[in-house]
Amino acid sequence: MNNAGPDTAGDLSSMARDDVDNVLRLGVPLLDHKYIQAKEMMKKTESKILIALGFVVHVKHPHKLIFSYIHTLNLSDRKDLVQKAWSYINDGLRTDMFLRYTPETIACACIFLAARTVEPPVALPSEPFHWFELFDASDRDVEAIAHMLVNLYNRKLPNWTALQAVVEKAHEAKMPKKDIEDEKKKAEEVAAKIIKEGKEKNGESNGKGDRRDRSRWEDLTMGLKERKFTERRKTKR
Prior knowledge:
Helix content is 71%, strand content 0%. The protein has helices at residues 9-16, 20-26, 33-52, 63-72, 79-92, 97-100, 103-117, 139-154, 160-174, 177-236. The longest helix is centred in the C-terminal third of the chain and has 60 residues, at 177-236.
């Protein structure tokens, strides 16, 4: 059973046909079987993630909380603090903090870290208790998120080529060699077919556009001629 790729050429065609216009318009390299296989694998992986999350994908973003909290701390004049905390929240989307902590805690942690990294640093209230406890955030969670962000910036970039080789090796291990060859051949045929259809469609569209342009030009020319003729008659009168 083929679990990694589509079962029919029709599935591949419907999957990649939407990309033809962009391929032709942007002049990117032509579609090949690897692109189609990678796209199908990505779609299946996305489905597995959605199932694991129980299709609960609504996230309450903490961005707007930054303004409220900084205003409460009477630091609204520190625009750099707002911008820095906002950037930390955006970068936090590259981690799993949004699945592990509440928006209020994330907002506090980003302000906590931003106050220590802006120039000059901002001293936030810590007596009689830490300021973020006012927003139901614990020092343990705030520091954990701050360390998560710092580690994110210190992390080495992954070797994407090596990772891709591992994925392809695992993919081939799950499939018989004959199925892999059949899938590759099928993907190549579909890619060639949709590219050909896209070129033909693009050519027809350009032809229609040229005819429309000529028609508009003829209408404009006729309109100018009629206007000049009318002006001449008025002058003679």
